[in-house]
Specification:
Number of helices: 7
Number of domains: 1
Structural class: alpha/beta
CATH superfamily: NAD(P)-binding Rossmann-like Domain
Radius of gyration: 18 Å
CATH architecture: 3-Layer(aba) Sandwich
CATH class: Alpha Beta
Helix content: 25-40%
Strand content: 15-25%
Shape: globular
Strand order of the largest sheet: 3-2-1-4-5-6-7
Number of strands: 7
Largest sheet: 7 strands, parallel
Length: about 240
């Protein structure tokens, strides 16, 4: 079996990735989050509140009864948080976005290597990043910061694996593009005074330019096939076409 852990598999892109993986009967998908949403014999669920760092620190990856050919982690869960300019945000907003998007993801990466680093099997980590990791968007300070940090820990993790691991894992951080998810709905409803580029995202929606979660998921899963052909750690959707 190929065991793949994924956070945020209850809806949107995460659910689409999980369902696409489950089309292959050789895949065992383990959802990590607060909501069970998929009914499938090869799907398991581990409850974890990614905003509660004490819970995340106590989390442990499962030991498998099945014979595992490969193991992977997809850090997909992410939140935009309240959109607002620095100086107007509640401190809790910044804390929550960083907790879910960066701190919990980083701890899970650390725990993944602790649990599976010595296994003589193929190992992969895919972190779902954003174009906002490279571009400053007014009103998105915590989100941009969290995704930039996710890109960097991905690069460090991949470098460490190349230099120190007997059986190196591959680590990727992918910007999946603009997808029709709940986050996009939130962006279209924000106050333009807090986010000057709102109309651009409204136009994407009205011109039917948003990718479906299913199409994005299919491309992201190709990383497992292309892992030895991809030189970069931080990649975009166009690298998978």
């Amino acid at each position: 079996m190929n065991a793949i852990f994924i956070t945020g598999s209850n809806r949107g892109l995460g659910r689409a990735i999980a369902e696409k993986l489950l089309e292959n009967e050789e895949n065992l998908v383990i959802g990590i989050g607060r909501d069970w949403s998929i009914d499938h014999p090869n799907y398991r669920f581990l409850y974890l509140n990614l905003d509660d760092i004490i819970e995340v620190k106590a989390f442990a990856f499962s030991v498998f009864n099945e014979e595992i050919k490969s193991v992977g982690l997809i850090n997909n869960a992410g939140i935009l948080g309240d959109v607002g300019l620095l100086g107007t945000l509640e401190d809790r907003v910044i804390e929550q976005v960083l907790n879910v998007n960066l701190i919990s993801a980083s701890i899970l990466i650390n725990k993944f290597f602790s649990a599976f680093g010595e296994l003589d099997v193929e190992k992969n980590i895919i972190n779902i990043s954003s174009g906002a990791a490279q571009n400053p968007y007014d009103g998105w300070s915590a989100y941009c910061t969290s995704k930039a940090g996710l890109d960097m820990i991905s690069r460090v993790a991949d470098e460490e694996q190349k230099l120190h691991a007997k059986v190196p894992a591959r680590v990727f951080s992918i910007a999946p593009g603009i997808i029709a998810t709940r986050m996009q709905e939130q962006i279209r409803e924000v106050d333009e005074a807090s986010f000057s580029r709102k109309q651009k995202f409204v136009d994407f929606f009205e011109q039917d330019l948003l990718a479906t979660p299913e199409d994005a998921a299919e491309k992201i899963i190709r990383i497992f096939e292309l892992r030895n052909k991809l030189d970069k750690v931080v990649i975009s959707m166009k690298d998978l076409e």
